[in-house]
Amino acid sequence: MHRYKFVFYRPLQLLPVLFGISVITFILVRMIPGDPARVLLGTRATPTAIARIREQYGLDEPLWRQYFYFLENLAHGEMGKSTLYKIDVLKLVMTRIEPTLMLVLVSVILSILIAVPLSTIAARRQGRIADHAVRIVSTMGIGFPPFWLALMLIIFFSVRLDLFPVSGYGRDPLDKLWHLALPSLTIALSLSAVLTRSLRGAMVQALQSDVATAARARGMPEGIVFWRHVLPNSLVPTINLLAINIGWLIGGTVVVESVFAIPGMGQLLIRAIFSRDYMVVQGVAMVFACATVLINFMADVITVTLDPRIKL
Amino acid sequence: MSAPATTRFSPSAGLSRWLGSHLSLSIGAGILVFFVLIAIFAPLVAPYDPVLQMADVRLTGPSLAHPLGTDNFGRDMLSRLIYGTRIDLQIALIGVIFPFIIGTVLGTVAGFFGGIVDAIFMRIIDIILAFPFLVLMLAIIAILGPGLTSFYIAMALVGWVSYARLVRAQILVLKNSDYAIAAVSLGFSRTRIMFRHLLPNAIAGSLVFVMSDAVLVLLNGAAISYLGLGVQPPTAEWGIMVAEGQPFVTTAWWITLFPGLAIVVLAFGFSLLGDALGDLLGVHE
Q: So where does this one cross the membrane (chain B) (predicted)?
């Protein structure tokens, strides 16, 4: 269990980062020109509401004290009210987490289903036509704008073939998956391009490793060498790669949710920006940042569990 | 089962790798030069004014008069695509150059001085990296207001961290090398040692990264314009052109198809250049 010691002290190391996230989100909203109370409440705020916000956030006091109030409110789960939806930001964000989380999960699973076979083909036929084809396709795939790819998939799968819905989010779990098919395929195609490029490299290395050579020397057929030694050894780099790209993946969901009108956090963020609902912008940015930190931590735990050689 | 093409010695492997990177370099450079020429000579190559609305040719498909069709305002899509090259190249260039300069300088200083300066910069970098890139960009643009200038400012504020990390790691190694110690004992100023002696040897990785970063910046810039927070209409820019075609995607596919393809091709050019530079300079990410 010694190897898992980091599970306890890593969160302590993350505290400065969480502190920094709160500072940045605090600064972001205070950077808006004009009276902060008016900014937080919208243009049609009543004088009593303005007075209440002034007191709650200590807006007449020095900035460091305002930050202290901000933290205190945060500790009580208080992130302000949305000027557009008239409810607490935290409650609003909570209702939007599920579609985004589902979108990310389905996209990751799909992208692994695409990237692993492609990298396998490329790595095992290194230097041949299949390898070159995979490399060219994945290099090109990185440059596909998600918002455009989404529309092309809509033209093909929704308009031509009438297979999947064009937009929205379903009610029951199956219907939801149905609606997420094209959005997650959009993200998965881009993500699998990134994954394939790195995974192919990891597999090529694993094919040349001493473990693989020793297995071949024992007379193990190439196919079994691959399944037993190469694939498992490529798993850890893939998980790390997914963790590194989680920020990029979240950026993708923001765009794709807007294209497909999925009521997730990304769509909430974009709408909030247009309606100058700054407390929501702040809340969504903070939740996304904390999620990124959490996912990276989880990836560390999984990595250590899967690979006994790694110590953190 | 194919034999392992792994440990066997192959005299042609080096050659094909060399040829491969030269081929990537030529194609990548070719694509980039093509777009740069189009951007420079846009008024000469474009058949129409990119914002000219011709009421009689609304939503017409590709034809001889309008090779890429027209949009719902009767604007010629080829002309818009050509003029859009100017904006999207500018997005990639400015969106990369400021983060590159800021990140390189800060990374050099942090790596060279070490200690508390370095610790502070590294913590700031950790915090910025904790945010999903596009989310932080969007939050900054929300404060500054929509527009290309906001996008560039947001890029400069967020994008420098990758360059700073790359350069810092190199400087940390190089500052203990013999020639750096020699430069110190010769009494050269710290600024001279940092930027004349260390930086030129530390920059290769960043130069390769510039190319893959250009892809990300181009995609992000186009995405932000697509969302309506970057370039504003009626300016022709590829991302916003896709957004403008979206309501007609089922009937007038040509409005969305071609601007997206242009992004894909330009991004491919940057990627190829990056791969080739990485091979030639011996840098691998």
A: 25-46, 91-117, 124-144, 150-167, 198-231, 251-273
